[in-house]
Amino acid sequence: MLRGLYTATAGMMSQQRRMETLSNNMANANTPGYKADQTSLRAFPELLLHATGKTEVPTQKPLNLPFAQPIGGLNTGVYVQELAPLFAQGDIQQTGIDTDLSIIQQQTSGAVFFTVEQTDGTYRYTRNGNFALDSQGFLTTNDGLYVLDENFNRIQINDRSFQVQPDGTLLVNDQPVARLGLTYTENPNELVKEGNGLFRLPQQEGEEEPQLLPLANNVVFEIRQGFLERSNVDSSRTMTEMMAAFRAFEANQKVIQAYDQSMQKAANEIGRIN
Questions:
Q1: What range does the domain containing 19 cover?
Q2: Contacts of 6 by beta carbon, 8 Å cutoff, 6+ apart
Q3: Which residues is 40 bridged to in the sheet?
Q4: Looking at the domain assignment, is residue 61 inside a domain?
Q5: How confident is the model at residue 101 (pLDDT cuts 50, 70, 90)?
Q6: What is the pLDDT of residue 271?
Q7: Which family does the entry's similarity section mention (predicted)?
Q8: What is the pLDDT of residues 104-130, one digit of tens each?
């Protein structure tokens, strides 16, 4: 009976974490460049039950031969194995603001990112192109992180009237001044998701922080100025999954209540002496 309590509790904990992930996705449904998280549920290792016993063999010297007869498998609950962002292309929304940039990929594999510099000098990668110009003319994110060019230098634009070519080249008075430092990874699932729409590569202890490689020539993309990539969260689907997670949580809760009532009856009624 206690095994059933543990199984139902594991189910409730998994659905609670799933609900937290879905709620976070819904809260960021209007965040530019946000990539929805996906939960992957997995069952704990399955137990194979056997009935063991002995068989007497009628011989001159009686023998007792042990045997094990399979009964079947027993699952011990589920858990959230991992959270993986969905790197599908989000919808493109026109804003008309020159500092808003969006990445449009022409291929489904891999992912292209803007490169930004944190205050400690390390690099991060983002799809949120909601940029701005600071007082010194540097192109930054709304959080104050510097947007980098292809040589990993900060981009300074002395004229607020500038154009961005589809390949990421920035023009001031029709003269190229820099090119966006776009990076690419064939396997975006290896990235670690941080807050504010930032990603990084996993770092091994004692090693320098790895960096994504610049764009290869075979990567097809387009930079569009005056547009933002919206979040790729499907609000309708997320609401449906939230309802399903809530019902699954409720079902496990009722299982625990049934076990609790059975244990109460066993303790208070079955063991009572008349």
A1: 1-49+73-89+239-256
A2: 76, 77
A3: 82
A4: no
A5: very high
A6: 59
A7: Belongs to the flagella basal body rod proteins family.
A8: 987 667 889 999 999 888 899 999 999
